């Protein structure tokens, strides 16, 4: 089979793998990358002699779309116990070694010593090292701190800004926003995103509070805002909240984001949470996974006083995802959607990310048979794993 008809000007990479999931299983086992894009998919691709092509033999590996993590504290979260409890920033290796090629940076509780400007600088730093990196403007508190002084302007004029978040509700650390304040914030995000040609989601942090998802249910019931404008995360923080999230997803045909906690405590692991959502009838297309990595996992006593903290990592994200396949909760094709196509759709990146397809970004992760990431390509460049010369 012949590769592309028009010869790209830059060096190309031809991956020859054992299997390819796009996320659907494909007959193709050869993937040609050029100019940061996938330009050919097939079997036994024949590249014309003299073309600048580097061939990578990986017949023992499985090619899948590189994972997308929509919730990463790239500057570090924390601070709930004072300045000595600020979490460290994350590095590129910690991201790509988990098969992640695209991320969205967030601020959390601390938007005083850390700011949207700090987050933008960190996101651009990761992009300079090859990652596909975006961010939410805002933080826990409402009104949301922004780069330009206005949510609409941030979305319209800052390419990296693709939404607002993480906005805290049902949490003693939130700013306890009134319902009209939430409605105004979401509508500002929607209009700014329309002007920018973006999805402009509002990424909502759910705490342990008794109100749970009630503010978001009310918002959807009483306004014209569509459900895909709103993404609640940490819905597996406690079993009762997950049950509420299942009802929310089914009632509004809405998406919910499950956090891969390393230590779920009184909550549920991502594996258990996804299993329960599926058992409740929530379609897998309405479920996404994220890591919350380098955020804080603070502990508070019954009076709300800080007693300790751990730093979240992204290893549980991949571990729980692997278990979904290995324990046959989902076939590989469907499990991949939780970290690829579903996330790309939620974020509005689905026209060029989340799939192995012609013209899409050449973001590819190579897995071994145990589903462990061995190599990660972003825009055709190998950022993790040895491909030789």
Summarize the helices and strands and which ones pair or pack.
Layout: E1 12-21, E2 25-26, E3 30-34, E4 37-42, E5 53-65, E6 67-72, H1 92-96, E7 100-105, H2 116-128, E8 132-137, H3 151-157, E9 161-169, H4 179-196, E10 201-206, H5 214-222, E11 230-233, H6 239-252, E12 256-259, H7 270-279, E13 287-290, E14 296-300, E15 306-311, H8 315-326, H9 332-337, H10 341-347, E16 364-367, E17 373-378, E18 381-384
Parallel strand pairs: 1-5, 6-7, 7-8, 8-9, 9-10, 10-11, 12-13
Antiparallel strand pairs: 1-2, 1-3, 3-4, 5-16, 14-15, 16-17, 17-18
Helix pairs in contact: 3-4, 7-8
Keywords: Hydrolase, Metal-binding, Metalloprotease, Protease, Zinc
EC number: 3.4.19.-
Cofactor: Zn(2+)
Description:
This protein has 389 residues and is α/β, with parallel strands linked by helices. It has two domains: 12-65 and 354-384, Urease, subunit C, domain 1; 67-347, Alpha-Beta Barrel (TIM Barrel), CATH 3.20.20. The protein is built from ten helices and 18 strands. The chain has helices at residues 92-96, 116-128, 151-157, 179-196, 214-222, 239-252, 270-279, 315-326, 332-337, 341-347, and strands spanning 12-21, 25-26, 30-34, 37-42, 53-65, 67-72, 100-105, 132-137, 161-169, 201-206, 230-233, 256-259, 287-290, 296-300, 306-311, 364-367, 373-378, 381-384. The strands form four sheets. Strands 1, 2, 3, 4, 5, 16, 17 and 18 form an eight-stranded mixed β-sheet that branches. Strands 6-7-8-9-10-11 form a six-stranded parallel β-sheet, with helices on both faces. Strands 12-13 form a two-stranded parallel sheet. Strand 8 (132-137), helix 3 (151-157) and strand 9 (161-169) form a beta-alpha-beta unit. Helix 3 runs parallel beside helix 4. The longest helix has 18 residues, at 179-196. The two termini are 25 Å apart. The relative contact order is 0.17. Residues 1-9 have low confidence and may be disordered.
């Amino acid at each position: 089979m012949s590769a592309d008809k028009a010869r790209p000007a830059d060096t190309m990479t031809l991956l020859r793998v054992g299997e390819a999931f796009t996320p659907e299983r494909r007959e193709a086992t050869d993937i040609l990358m050029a100019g940061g894009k996938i330009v050919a998919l097939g079997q036994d691709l024949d590249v014309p002699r003299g073309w600048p092509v580097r061939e990578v033999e990986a017949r023992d590996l499985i090619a899948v779309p590189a994972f997308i993590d929509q919730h990463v504290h790239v500057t570090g979260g924390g601070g709930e116990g004072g300045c000595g409890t600020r979490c460290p920033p994350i590095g590129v290796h910690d991201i790509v070694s988990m098969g992640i090629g695209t991320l969205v940076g967030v601020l959390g509780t601390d938007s005083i010593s850390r700011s949207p400007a700090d987050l933008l600088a960190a996101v651009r730093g990761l992009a300079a090292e090859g990652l596909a990196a975006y961010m939410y403007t805002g933080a826990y508190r409402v009104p949301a701190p922004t780069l330009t002084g206005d949510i609409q302007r941030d979305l319209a004029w800052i390419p990296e800004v693709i939404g607002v978040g993480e906005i805290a509700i049902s949490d003693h650390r939130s700013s306890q926003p009134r319902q009209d304040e939430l409605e105004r914030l979401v509508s500002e995000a929607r209009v700014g995103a329309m002007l920018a040609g973006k999805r402009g989601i509002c990424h909502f942090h759910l705490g342990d509070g008794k109100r749970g998802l009630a503010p978001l249910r009310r918002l959807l019931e009483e306004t014209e805002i569509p459900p895909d404008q709103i993404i609640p995360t940490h819905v597996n923080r406690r079993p009762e909240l997950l049950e509420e999230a299942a009802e929310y997803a089914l009632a509004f045909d809405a998406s919910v984001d499950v956090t891969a906690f390393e230590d779920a405590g009184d909550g549920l692991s991502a594996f258990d949470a996804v299993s329960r959502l599926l058992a409740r009838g929530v379609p897998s297309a309405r479920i996404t996974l994220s890591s919350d990595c380098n955020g804080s996992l603070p502990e508070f006593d019954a009076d709300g006083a800080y007693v300790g903290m751990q730093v979240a990592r992204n290893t549980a994200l991949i571990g729980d995802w692997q278990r979904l396949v290995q324990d046959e909760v989902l076939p590989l094709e469907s499990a991949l959607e939780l970290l690829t196509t579903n996330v790309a759709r939620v974020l509005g990146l689905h026209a060029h990310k989340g799939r192995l397809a012609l013209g899409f970004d050449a973001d590819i992760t190579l897995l071994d048979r145990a589903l462990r990431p061995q190599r990660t390509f972003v825009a055709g460049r190998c950022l993790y794993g040895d491909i030789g010369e």
